[in-house]
C-alpha cells in the first residue's frame, strides 16, 4: 500500500518522464530531418544507398568460402560436362563413319533396317556409352541419379516428338520409316 504522498510523487515522476520522452522524440525527428537534408545536398538518396548495400552484400557473398567452393565445383562440373559431350559427339561421328564405310554406297535406310541396326553390336556399344555418360553426368552435376529412363526410352520419345512436330511431307515419311 502506498501513502498519498508516495502516489503524488510517482504521478509527478510519470508526467516528467512522459515530457522527457516527448522532447526526445522531437529532437530525434529534428535530427532525422537534418540527416535527410544533408543526404540530399550530397546527392545521396534511398536508391543509391540500396545500390551500395547490394554491391557490398554481393562482394561479401563472392568473397565467402562457400561461394568460392560452389563456383569452383560448378566450373569443374561444366568442364567435365563439356568434355563428356565432346566425347559423345566424337563417338557418334566415329560410329556413323563406321556405318557409312560398311554401307558401300547405300544409305542406312536402304542397307539395314532400324530394328536390325538397334540390335547390332555397334549400336549396343554406343547405347552403353551414352547411358554411362549420362549417368556419370547426373551423378557429378546433380548429385543423385534422378532416373531419366533408358536410352531406348529417350530415343523413342525423341523420335515420337519429332514425328509429331513435323508437319508432314517427305520428312515425315522418312521419320516413319526410322521409327521402331
**Oligomeric state of the chains in view:** single chain
- Estimated radius of gyration: 37 Å
Q: Helix share of residues? A: over 70%
Low-confidence spans: 167-178
**What proportion strand?**
under 5%
Largest sheet: none
Mean pLDDT: 76
Distance between the termini: 98 Å
The sequence of SSEs as H and E is HHHHHHHH
Query: What class do helices, strands and sheet pairing give?
Result: mainly alpha
Number of helical regions:
8
Principal-axis shape equals elongated
How many beta strands in the DSSP annotation?
0
Protein name: Tumor protein D53 isoform X4
Pfam families: TPD52
Family: Belongs to the TPD52 family.
GO biological process, one term: positive regulation of apoptotic signaling pathway
Please characterize this protein's 3D structure:
This protein starts with a helix and ends with a helix. Among the domains are: 4-63, no CATH class; 65-97. It has 180 residues and is mostly helical. Helices cover 83% and strands 0% of the residues. Helix 3 (65-103) runs antiparallel to helix 6.
Amino acid at each position: 500500500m502506498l501513502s498519498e504522498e508516495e502516489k503524488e510523487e510517482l504521478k509527478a515522476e510519470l508526467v516528467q518522464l512522459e515530457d522527457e520522452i516527448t522532447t526526445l522524440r522531437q529532437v530525434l525527428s529534428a535530427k532525422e530531418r537534418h540527416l535527410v537534408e544533408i543526404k540530399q545536398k550530397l546527392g545521396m538518396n534511398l536508391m543509391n544507398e540500396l545500390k551500395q548495400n547490394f554491391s557490398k552484400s554481393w562482394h561479401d557473398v563472392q568473397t565467402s568460402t562457400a561461394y568460392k567452393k560452389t563456383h569452383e565445383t560448378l566450373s569443374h562440373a561444366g568442364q567435365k560436362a563439356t568434355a563428356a559431350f565432346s566425347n559423345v559427339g566424337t563417338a557418334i561421328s566415329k560410329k556413323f563413319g563406321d556405318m557409312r564405310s560398311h554401307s558401300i554406297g547405300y544409305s542406312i535406310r536402304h542397307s539395314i533396317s532400324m530394328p536390325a541396326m538397334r540390335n547390332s553390336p555397334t549400336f549396343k556399344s554406343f547405347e552403353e556409352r551414352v547411358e554411362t555418360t549420362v549417368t556419370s553426368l547426373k551423378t557429378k552435376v546433380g548429385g543423385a541419379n534422378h532416373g531419366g529412363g533408358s536410352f531406348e526410352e529417350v530415343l523413342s520419345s525423341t523420335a515420337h516428338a519429332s514425328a509429331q512436330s513435323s508437319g508432314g511431307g517427305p520428312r515425315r515419311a522418312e521419320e516413319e520409316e526410322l521409327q521402331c
